[in-house]
Write a structure and sequence with these properties.
Layout lengths: L6 E5 L2 E5 L5 E2 L1 E7 L6 E7 L21 E9 L2 E8 L4 E7 L7 E5 L7 E4 L5 E5 L3 E7 L12 E6 L9 E8 L2 E9 L6 E8 L7 E6 L10 E8 L5 E8 L5 E11 L2 E4 L39 E3 L7 E4 L4 E5 L14 E4 L4 E9 L7 E8 L4 E8 L2 E8 L18 E8 L3 E9 L6 E8 L2 E4 L4 E2 L11 E8 L6 E10 L1
Antiparallel strand pairs: 1-2, 2-4, 3-22, 4-5, 6-7, 7-8, 8-9, 10-11, 11-12, 12-13, 14-15, 15-16, 16-17, 18-19, 19-20, 20-21, 22-25, 23-24, 24-36, 25-35, 26-31, 26-36, 27-28, 27-35, 28-29, 29-30, 31-32, 32-33, 32-34
Length: about 500
Amino acid sequence: MDYPDPDVIRVDDTYYMVTTTMYFMPGCEILRSYDLVNWEHASYVYETLDGTAEQKLTGDKNIYGKGMWAASIRYHKNKFYVCFAANDTNKTYLYISDKINGPWEKRSIQGFYHDSSLLFDDDGKIYIVYGNNDIWLTQLKDDLSAPLEGGLHKIIISDKDNKMLGYEGSHFYKINNKYYVFLIHSRKDRWMRTEACFKSDSIDGEFKGGDVFEDDRNYCGQGVAQGGIVDTPDGKWFAVLFQDSGAVGRIPVLIPVKWENDFPVFGENGKVPEKIIVKSARPDYVYAPLFGSDDFKSSYIDSKWQFNHEPDKSAYLINGKEGRFEIITNKICDDLTQSVNAITQRTLFPLCSAEVTIDAKDLKEGDYAGICALQSCYGMAAITRREGKYFVIMKSREPADQSASGFKKSILRAEEREAVPFNSEIVRLKIDIDFTNMKDEAVFYYYHNGKFNQIGKTHKLYFTLDHFTGCRFALFMYAAEKTGGKAGFMNFRYNG
């Protein structure tokens, strides 16, 4: 699943991993594990961030492709620290808590620190490493509020001549009295993520090193890089990096690490091994799933779900008694990407499917309520009301040209592909997705006459930089003509 930019720590027998959540809220999710393989939800660092018009999807504003990126998680003197920059506000945030599940105290660090990593040194000094192309090392004040006046502040590594992607994704450690910076960049002759490491014997010394890992796991030429390293209670080391995997997003990869002459060696013979032996600190522990079905019979929204942007609490309802998640429209928009209160779950590699039942009796003219494969080039199946009658429709957005499948932003307006008259206010809709070998295709269905029937065309999915996240299942509703309509979502079924 899409958990990019991982940073991992261990506290006693427990591993914690933080990853990028961008514009989804609650945000900055932290996962927990006892073996580095199986993970479950531990905490969201914030419910909402700054409540800006863009974060709230006000009008046609949004923070797609922005939001929080590449957090650093640290544990120091019985406190958890999470630091990240948000590309929509151009601020650096610092959250502190005594417990992993909060409450988290919100602070800020003066300045903007791209892909930053914190280090609490043994002598009490605090440093932050960050940057793109030029990698900076800066000493912070004791309260982490700003750079320390007169403190260490210098470029320690540079990759300016790399036209593909220069160094970024910093992860900074002190291990056996030596300082290590782990970075990602691309090969210079073609796009491929590569992991690098630089070492210095002192904090103000020269950092020397270079590429330490280049492998695509025989998967579409997509390299594995960017993430943190962590040791186990019995002294072994592992890296958790990620791999671009097409429309599903960027998937974490576990790699064994050993040390030779005080320098890390990744994998086995330079490759990610097919099998990795791990030891669980709690072998009988049962992990809560990170995705799954929902009958909406709780009084709260399960942690598996995240809203697309900041929700409007006045415009949705959790009807646990009847098992319904209800959305009430509160704005006019002509595209589901601007719809408020859509709830999402990550899609699962290599195959996954989701279906939902929708009660549309309270839809207003021109309303759409449905399920979608959420991304910039989205596809959706929905029920709508036109001239007092119901129709099931399939709608999608396409790239303006095939090159947009990579990292361009050229996306066409969404077009309706098929509309079918429907004689009921209750409808079941379904999506099947195939990510195998970057096939990245979604097929949409509606239930009628005792079976699921395909609607519209098979839709191609893409990972594009304008959203910069993996495809998600989303339940949504939006109003094209008048506000105040309502839809009830029931019996969500997720099949891996």
